[in-house]
Batch of 2 targets.
Target 1
Amino acid sequence: MTISFEIPEHVQQQADMAKMAAEFFMRPVSRELDENEHQRPDMFVQNIWPVMRDMQKKTLDKLAAPPTEGEKKPERQSTQNLRLMLMIEMLSWGDAGIYLCLPGGALGGAAIEAVGTPEQKIRFLQRFAEGEIPAWGAMAMTEPGAGSDTSAIQTTAVLDKEANQWVLNGEKIFCTNGKLALDESNGLVVVWASIDRSAGRAGMRPFVVEAGTPGVKVTKTEIKHGIRASDTASIVLDNARIPADNILGSPEVQREGGGGFKGAMATFDATRPLVSASALGIGRASLEFVKEKLAEEGVEIPYNLPYHKLTAIQRDVLEMEAQFKAAYLLTLRAITLLDQRQPNNLESAMCKAKAGKVVTQISQKAVELLGPMGYSREWLAEKWMRDAKINDIFEGTGQINTLIVARRILGYSSKELG
Amino acid sequence: MVSFTPTEEQQQLLDTVKRYAANDIRSIAHESDEGGGFPASTIDKGWQIGLVPTAIPEEQGGLGEMSALTGALAAEELAFGDLSAALAVMAPALFAYPISLYGTTEQREVWLPHFLEEKAPKATAALLEPGIFFDAHDLKTTATPEGDKVRLNGVKACVPLASDAEIMLVYARNSETGAMDGFLVGRGAEGLEIEGDEKLMGLRALSTSRVKLNDVRVDVPCRLGGAEGCDYQAVLNRGRVALAALAVGVARASFEYARDYAKERQAFGAPIATKQAIAFMLAEAAIEVDAARLMVWEAAWQLDQGKDATKAAYLARQYAEKAALTVTDSGVQVLGGYGFIREYPAERWLRNARGFTAFEGLAIV
């Protein structure tokens, strides 16, 4: 091992291809889709679906027929998450709202990948690996009365032993891609519900709810500040019945040690760096654009002058660049640990807290530096600012991620540091 | 392939540096800061770890190879012990590394063997200048060619260990071409005046001096790199990475101390670390320390890859010096009143951290 920042060439090539896709299929419709909320980015979806489908197919093929001893390649660091990180960054550079419409399992798929049995993975993820028509996955955790405090979740799952089905009741909100998953494709939503309200978090479990399940209804799509191309759905579960083996993890409640909840929360260690990656894409877009516009006005950014020889604008841009890089490297570290199959709970909370904050600041500064044109809807800077903010909110707010960092560095449990 | 794990060799070296920083430096950092600096034996022991000899390439008679990454890893650990001690241990490198990187064959043959000895040669470098508008790319110190001599004029500030130095590398602007160059100036040079110890806000355990050059004449072969000169930007880049790494070490020292204190200190019936107001300060400090370190590593890696690290080194230094100030300020704040008391180390780390914006040229990797 040695410290290295070398991105393998084949990974960089994929990132470059993602950037081309962003240039061709996203940027040209970015403004239009922002102005017409909930319009679907069809061109992007149609063009990217085969890529996503084949990626999913590869992982499922591996699962169905694991390589024999003879076929096994020498143990080498995976680049799976690194590829995802750079691809997501580039697609979000194109348009973060459209990126969220990426067909495939998304967060729902990630939860299934993380805690599902091999049988469940094949049963649920096959739809993301075949066919000409795209499908979406989603995750439904938040409720009107339960945001960061997931232990307050009211949705219940009761096992009907006779029918061998779980019966789900409750209301979920702020579900990214909920409509795409349930109404517009043969998708699925991973719904968090309690199997034992008295057990608090230990009683919480994720359930796979497939499109077409009676009693599941998308009741609303939110009108939002940013990422308007992405649907954010409210879902009502009214005696929704799903097969007993649609539960992810054990149906037994273990009151000590968090049980299945803790295991499933580990999904976030994998997804938070990917949310950071999306934030970074917006940060990169804002920063590049500001530098481009400044260059047109004859303002270059120097990297060797003392502070007193820099103009206020140069100082601002240098600060944006340094902060961006810090967030990028923290994300790269969290991602690399994932690829090395090492624990990254602390590092993924760090990168998410940092990226959410600095990309929000970078995109806001970009609007300021561009003056009236930054504020104008003629350019995309103002849109990026609106798109950026969500990254400091979803997949754990900046505060929740800071709290996780605090607990980790202090060695405190959630009881000791609430 | 991306990785954040040092090599086994680096790890072994780091373990040695860590032990030295904890046992030999940290234990006497307070009294050394209060008066007189570190005992010579302590700094000698740091030298004997062999950071400089192992950075001199084998083909130049050294014991290893120049690695900015290794240097940055070691610098963080040394500064975790104490910044003054770190700068004292690393000072000879200010002279040796540019000679190793850019020196003529003759300069290398004459000087580098001294850096393989048991005792550190009394060598340093002078870059920084007094005055509020210092610019490393526009030095006020001038080098004026005069036939087979070069005449040096100017004032240098914060030159580490200058009062004992037998030889120093003085950076100056060629008054004809405007280019920056290094010159080897011996202690006995006529017109060279080394003033007594400077009085600084921090670095109180490090001897630094103003160095005045009043028509100091050196022979043309004393120019670093001879007719070719040196890659001055790269010298600065290496210096910036070194400073950034040291800043990370100071910040980490402060953060870890505050973290441990906050878990001990009781208020309102519980450790203060159980309050989010304190816990969040510490969490943010932890993030800043890690972020700054990653920026240092990336810049150092670029240097080792032979890439142009100008931007990365500049941003790393800018980021690390700000992070160090924020983190050490939090370090004082978490300790409350004790943070302000000199018997506790937090205020020393804050004083030392404040200097990084001014320390250009005080260290190199």
Target 2
Amino acid sequence: MRSDLEIIDEWVQPNIRVLDLACGPGELLHHLIKNKQVNGYGLEIGHDDLNICIEKGIPVLEQNIDEGLQNFDDQSFDLVLMTHALQQFRRPDLLIDEMLRIGKECIITFPNFGHWRSRLHLALKGRMPVSDFLPYNWYDTPNIHFFTFQDFERLCKEKNIKVLRWAAVDGQLKDHWWIRSMPNLFSETAIFHISR
Amino acid sequence: MPDVIPADSVGIVTPQIAQFDTPLALSCGQSLSSYQLIYETYGTLNQSASNAILICHALSGDHHAAGYHAMSDSKPGWWDTAIGPGKAIDTNKFFVIALNNLGGCCGSTGPTSINPETGQRWEASFPIVTVEDWVESQARLADLLGIQTFAAIVGGSLGGMQVLEWSIRFPTRLQSAVIVASAPKLSTQNIAFNEVARQSIRRDPDFFDGNYIDNNSVPTNGLGLARMLGHITYLSDDAMGAKFGRQMRHDSYQYNYGIEFEVESYLRYQGEAFTKRFDANTYMLMTKALDYFDPASQTNGDLSAVLSRAQCEFLLVSFTTDWRFSPERSEEIVNALVKAGKSVSYAKIEATEGHDAFLFPIPRYMTVLNTFLTRVANRLTTEIK
């Protein structure tokens, strides 16, 4: 399993209700259902991903998150997850509000655009960074919002969202002391555990 | 007519009849002292009788879901696209049962059958049956065939309602439920459509208050009209447009009430063809069963509360252009199941065919169905090992 997912796994309590937004092929959810006995559901619109989930027996619903999540009641889940997807939605700020309405807690992971390599790429080459982790060109990328570790922290502060804990990992998804001390510069993936 | 039976067909099949002599109490308060159910089976029941799939039919369906009755048949069973060796409902893995519901007109006891108590045809006196009654009778058929638990129960439209009822009424008797293009209850508009269909039958002077056979008559106009209306609602605007557009019968307008547009001819043909194979009283009964179905009424309208009894895994499927049983209606079931903490997956299939899509072999639809059922089959084999 990707090590950002391993970190999330450590944070998740057993036997809770989990909603995984944009669950992809359900790697994390599958693990949580098997090992933490969670009552989990994924939302996804990719046909292949949906099929993989059904194949593995992961409850998955075909639902476009950008069209709203009104079908889920307030505080009806213990945990709402979103890994590496927030940057793909029309209004990440409103989506976070929705996630915190539906879930008592949320865990969100995202690529940190403040990573030194992205900064260097833009500064030296003058062009939008393309990396192994974000391998798209500006015109075909599904990632329509780029933001940094600090941007996310600031948004949480503005919205009075509590950061219960966070982690930051590099491209190999390892946790190092220098990443921890300067996450905005050194983390490639940021992981936030938040609540109201 | 098949010159040779296709390799992925279940081949020539012969319907069987099960006789039941234990009275069946119906929702309406009456009971049937004895009755018959006609059914077909495809594939082989395994030793532990754990690989059975029950197919529940929709408004105008019957027990002939797959294969051919004779080499001279012009068409195979109504869901032959999905049932067969190697198909989505794989008869190499599953023992598939399809029956004609009570009140039907294809061999199970219904309005055209003889009432044993009077020696006369039931006709208008046949009691109104509900989805609940059907599920009870289907459970008795399962008992007779030695099936305690179905691997899956599958149905589209009105068939999906039966599957939903199974999951609530007999939660331990099915491992999985596949509900396609269905709804937890009819919308007002749907009840309204059904009422127009019924009125068109009832107002046909050949209907004789339902006792038309006795009067050597058939309400073909009314039943045909009901089917024409139904047919429009089963297709999408786009599908009809793509099929017929404004294609004309003649080069110029005739300025009369004959057939001007091809769609008129199509509807008349569909209406007329239907009257040759279907009974008007059965059609009326089926529409009433649709109208009455509302399992959430047991729990003050709370669908998730009534579904909390269910124990099986669910797959729900809807189609984008279906407006008779729109995706939102399937999503009501999905949301209630999520709320109740049940295992459910849901696919919304892009399709142009409207409600009829559930009968078409749309590749992604078949893939989803097959993927879900393959897992059901794999679990059976691991359990046996």
